[in-house]
Automatic annotation (TrEMBL):
<dbReference type="InterPro" id="IPR013991">
    <property type="entry name" value="PhnaA_N_proteobac"/>
</dbReference>
<protein>
    <submittedName>
        <fullName>PhnA protein</fullName>
    </submittedName>
</protein>
<feature type="domain" description="PhnA protein N-terminal proteobacterial">
    <location>
        <begin position="7"/>
        <end position="53"/>
    </location>
</feature>
<dbReference type="Pfam" id="PF03831">
    <property type="entry name" value="YjdM"/>
</dbReference>
<dbReference type="InterPro" id="IPR013988">
    <property type="entry name" value="YjdM_C"/>
</dbReference>
């Protein structure tokens, strides 16, 4: 038994730190910061590890155990609990647990670092009228005349808008400056320029 395994065994009481199962235990190093230390590893059963590593094998009911283990005083256990609850949040009950969980900024960044935290369908992607993906700082050209609400002018077709910013919660809106005015523009009326 390695020093790490001995320390994890002592910390966990020789049980899976996620579900409490006492057999088929192994060290699971929590990606991506794993250096094989007590601070970035958990002691978990094969069943939990298999489901963590392969989303196709996930049994949502198995993870009801997180109701307790999410309160662990050990950060790597909290990180894995947060990731699994996040993966399962469409089930309903995990969202309630996520709402109760608190991770400081640094820990939350670690929890989110596996890029699994949002379903592809939930990611907000801004696209121009031709389907090109827009990013903060891009330049676009208006493809039709737009009446600017609250200002007494029309933004003309062909007007360039430089250094746009994306409206983070709405894929159909960007912001930029036209004739010195900061305005919101619908992405369907712009074309990205190189």
């Amino acid at each position: 038994m390695s020093v790490l395994e001995k320390r994890l065994t002592d910390r966990s009481g020789n049980k899976c730190e996620l579900c409490g199962y006492e057999h088929d235990l192994q060290i699971y190093q929590v990606p991506p910061t794993s250096e094989g230390t007590l601070d970035d590893s958990i002691y978990a059963c094969k069943n939990c590890v298999d489901q963590i590593e392969d989303p196709e094998k996930v049994d949502p009911n198995h993870w009801r155990c997180l109701n307790e283990s999410m309160w662990s005083e050990h950060l790597p256990v909290q990180i894995v609990a947060w990731r699994m609850l996040n993966r399962l949040r469409s089930e309903g009950w995990p969202q309630d647990l996520l709402d109760m969980m608190y991770l400081d900024e640094e820990s939350l960044a670690w929890a989110k670092s596996t890029e699994e935290t949002e379903d592809e369908a939930e990611k907000i992607i801004h696209k121009d009228s031709n389907g090109n993906i827009l990013a903060d700082g891009d330049s676009v050209v208006l493809i039709k005349d737009l009446d600017v609400k609250g200002a007494n002018f029309t933004a003309k077709r062909g007007t360039a808008v430089h250094r746009i910013s994306l409206v983070w919660d709405n894929a159909e809106q960007i912001e930029g400056r036209v004739e010195g005015q900061h305005i919101v523009i619908l992405t369907q009326y712009v074309k990205k320029t190189k």
